[in-house]
Amino acid sequence: MTPQEALEALRPFAGQKGRFREVLGDHGVLMAHLAFDGSPTSAAEFFGYVSSSQMKKDFARVGLAARKRDWTDPTSGWHRFSNEATTDDLRARLLNATGGVERALPVPWTVPRDTEYARLICVSDLHYGERAQDYARWLALRDWIVANPDVRWLFHGDLFDLACVQSPGRSMTRQALSFEEARRVALADLQPIASQCIALLTGNHDLRVARGLQIEFDPVRDIAERLGVPHLGYEGFVRYEVGDGGKRAQSYVGYHHHGFGGGQTLSAFILKLQRLADRNDAHFVVMGHSHQLASVTTTHRQVAPGGQMEVVDRPLVGAGSFLKHEGYPAEQGYAPSVLGAATVHLYLDRHSVHARA
Predict the structure, then answer these.
(1) Cα–Cα distance between 276 and 270 in angstroms, integer?
(2) Tens digit of pLDDT for each residue in 103-127?
(3) Which of 64, 74, 104, 268 shows its CA 20 to 30 Å from the CA of 232?
């Protein structure tokens, strides 16, 4: 009898402790020793014993030596789950997880003939659930996007407020809606403009529950999947292929980031934007998080294809927010935010980007 045959013969007695001994006698003990490579620990786990002492006694009674389980051998002993991953399985999973190539999100965007530029609305920091949300302002912008089907929009994070007991400077008493209620309303509000959405980003507020509980949970990714729109994570590149279906067409790369750090002043915010621009080559850079609605144009020199030097503009954009000056911002002496969303114009007849805040 092979160890596998012995194991199969003992399976009807799994978890029944001494039942195998009552039915099979010493022959059952011999099969257990063979099936579990002499390990009383593995045998005890299989039969449902709390400790291995009884199996040690059984092995000694029939004159068989007990052996320690070889913990370095994944095939040694009994495994509770038949689908337990082997080392090769884990290695293959790790190679698959770490072997991906990061790519920019490709966005083909066709606008009507004679359109001067494509309009991209950069929305950020809606904070669904917070009493200070300027909900009416957001709905007005949402309805304007619906009424202008050639417009596209990209969300830059903090869709939800998600205050919890660990949240710095936030009180759960300021929540007008529970998370589940906020999720339902946000999903319904975004549905009419889902077809015009380039992508959704996740913000630090959106991840508060996941970080607090140490779980994998991203409510913005869930919303994106339900709406059928791309989810970029916390940041990402987008390649916009803009045209009118004729000869007028341009390709633009945008870098979109939720944001980071405290930075209460506009100058501190612009420095963070400049830092992103210095490290990520794009025609324009947009960031949320700091509730700054702003646009500045930086310049840099580069060598044109013909060899001559040229000066190139690069807009740096603060996506703004829809959170009024109440509660924590007022208590900490922050300046009130200019509410609303920024707009980026991508021109068709020349390679040029203009931002408006």
Answers:
(1) 10
(2) 999 999 999 999 999 999 999 999 9
(3) 268
User: Which pairs from 7-12 meet CB under 8 Å and 24+ separation?
Assistant: 7/35, 7/36, 7/78, 10/35, 10/46
Q: For residue 214, which amino acid is it?
A: Q
Average pLDDT for residues 16-26, to the nearest whole number? 90
Q: In terms of Cα–Cα distance, which of 125, 138, 133, 167 is closest to 288?
A: 125
CA distance from start to end of the chain: 79
Q: Where are the alpha helices (DSSP H) in the chain?
A: 3-10, 19-24, 26-35, 40-47, 53-61, 87-98, 135-147, 179-190, 208-213, 219-227, 266-279, 328-331
Report residue 254 CA to chain centroid gap: 19
Written as six digits, the tokens of 43 are 């045998």
- Residues 136-159 have pLDDT tens digits of 999 999 999 999 999 999 999 999
Retrieve residue 174's tokens.
């300021």
Q: What rounded mean pLDDT belongs to the chain?
A: 89
User: At 312, is the secondary structure helix, strand, or coil?
Assistant: strand
Q: Are 319 and 122 in contact (CB under 8 A)?
A: yes
Here the tokens at position 76 are 């040694």
The three-class DSSP label of residue 4 is helix
Return the CATH architecture of domain 105-356.
Answer: 4-Layer Sandwich (3.60)
Residue that is written with structure tokens 């980031």 in the block: 257
The tokens of 275 are what?
A: 């830092």
> Is the pLDDT score of 68 beyond 70?
yes
Between CA 161 and CA 130 the distance in angstroms is: 6
Look up tokens 């012995």; give the residue. Answer: 6
Nearest residue to 234 via CA among 267, 250, 210, 213: 210
> Domain limits of the chain?
3-98, 105-356
Q: Extract the tokens encoding 30.
A: 């011999």
Distance (Å, whole) CA 73 – CA 80: 15
Which residues lie below 8 Å from residue 167, measured CB to CB, with a gap of 6+?
208
Using DSSP's 3-state secondary structure scheme, residue 259 falls into coil
CA distance 210 to 220: 12
